[in-house]
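**User:** My hope is that you can spare some time for a protein that puzzles me. As I understand it, each token names a local backbone shape. I would be glad if you read both lines and explained how they fit together. The protein I mean follows directly.
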Amino acid sequence: MQLRELRLNDFGKFHNRSLRLKKGINLIYGENEAGKSTIHSFVKGMLFGIEKQRGRASKDDTYEKFLPWDNAGSYKGSLDIEISGKNIRIIRNFEKSSKNNSIIDLDTGRELQLSPEELAGLYGGLTEAGYRNTISIEQLKSRTDQDLVEEVRNYITNLSLSKSKEVDVTKALNYLQDKRKELESRQLKSKITALEKEIEEGLKKEALADKLSLQLKETAKQEKLLTQQRNSPQNNVYYNKYSSFNEYLACLEQFPIIKEKYNILKEVNQQAELLKEKLTSIEVRFHEYQGDISVALKDSINELDSLKYESKTLEEEKSAYDRKSESELNQIKKNRISISFLPGLTGAAGSLIFMGKNNLLMGLSAALLFTAILLYLLFTGRVRKMQKDIDVKNGGYEKALNSIQEKAKNILNKCGAENEKSLNLKYEEALRQEMSYEHLQKQKKEYMEQEQLLKKRAAGLEPEIMEYIRKILVPSNQNVIPFNLMDDVRMSELEEFIRKQKQEIKEKQEANTKELETIRIKKEKLKWELVTLEDNEDSLLRNQELYKELLEKKKETDLELEAIQLSIDTIQQLSIDIHDSFGRKLNDLVSNLTGEITDHKYLDIKIDEKLNIKVGYKDNYVLLNKLSAGTIEQFYFALRIAISDLVYGQGNMPILLDDCFALYDDKRTRGALTFLAEGRQGQVIIFTCHNREKDIMDELNMNYNYIDLSANS
């Protein structure tokens, strides 16, 4: 296969860029970031496609890395190749939303519809793993991976067995190992062990179910017995005579009503006694009744009122007389002073003044003084006479008033009253007695009727109470205590007896209820446990059937696993045997190529079935990791070239070298380039950012196609 022309329509930094490649060596030069790795990745993408990665792998996603810089939405290109004389054009659109590809036969113009397997056949058996591990060599990435081991194993197996490429050993081994994993994943042994445990557990549950069923029957019997005992207790002489225990309980519960009736009866008797006392009191009052005395008392009151009016009139007359006589007396006294004072004073003064001086004036003054004294004496006599008349008049008034008071006192004494108020009270009391006498007669009649009703009511209560006492207290035919002997003390004793009976019954019923509840809980628990075991029998039968099936399957699976393991061992042994013959040829090719590159320093190379390399050194073989990094890169370079020529045919596949000589010195670079130009047929594409390769090829006059990416950008 030869790459003829690359058209990078929109890929990475390139837009509508074409590169024409020739047979032999093509040296593509470009400075850093000129796009060498982009072109290298474009070739791989055109041959095998580019898938967008997801998850963690997306960080190093080739799809994202080479998205077009300038023309978003267009992500495509084409590649012309020549294979076995045919010219083929591969066209790919990498855009994820419109991804497609087409393969055109340029000689006929027909579009080829090829499956991935047919495409690998078109490429001469080259797969993406083969491409990555053989013909495509990047800087510091010459080491191969496990995919190449599988490719080589398939190749040498087909080469030895059928001389064709129809047998895929890796796929066969993978199929057998997957089949073995599938059979082992059935875990029949663990399933059988688990099933044995389940069957054992199921048998235990069946035994437990039988045991629980017996316990449930016994529990039901106990529940029935306790229920009977609750409804009809034994060994009690007081309620044996009742038709049912509930009747006795009802009788006990009736006591508060009977007690209330007893209290009513007691109250009725008390009311009867009270009525009797009231009737006696009424009779006494009848005997005490004195007849109609209110008229006489009223007359006496009227007499008193007349006397009071008479007394009041006299007192008013006396008061008026006293006021009038006092006023007149006071006026006379004033006149006595006023009429006699001025003449007397004038006469006395004149007598003193004119004594011995003027007898006439003195005589006049003496006469005037005498006149004043005479007037004074006249008025004084008049005052005394008037005062005497007043006293006589007042004496008459007092006598009349005393007579009135005496009459009033006689009236009060006659009526047996201390004063007028008491007389009024007596009169009111007499009126009340006269008014209530008729009422007392009616009240007596009412009391007598009430007494009859109470006796009738008592006659209805007493037998009921005595019948109740008889039922409660008399366990056999015995005389009942007469009711008239029944008092509060005996009623309290009866109440205490009933309380004890109820307490005894309550305690027994509580104990019975507790025991019955325990039994019922146990019964429900047993039922629940039996319900949980209901499906056990069916499950046990299914498990037993399944157990038999699994034993048969295990026998079959064991036979299959033995056959698979025998097949795997046979194929692996056959692969090792085949490798021994193929390996010698691979060892020779790698040794020759390594000798060319290293100037014949390393000529004895051994490669095992896993493509691990050992180097012959002084009668011994050392591991490759003992050598320098550059030498290791050269050994893997030789291994890739050798495997490519062996698997795909010498010179049939192009070799792509992306700065893979970075760790080579000039001498070994010259040896590698000389081998590629003279010792191997086929196309070689070298990507470099150095001029060393060009200088060496020019120095050796090698024929090569030079492409300067910087000059054509």
About this structure: Residues 1-126+653-713 form a domain with the Rossmann fold fold (CATH 3.40.50.300). Residues 155-167, 476-480 have pLDDT under 50 and may be disordered. Residues 146 and 610 are 8 Å apart (CA to CA). The two ends are 28 Å apart (CA to CA).
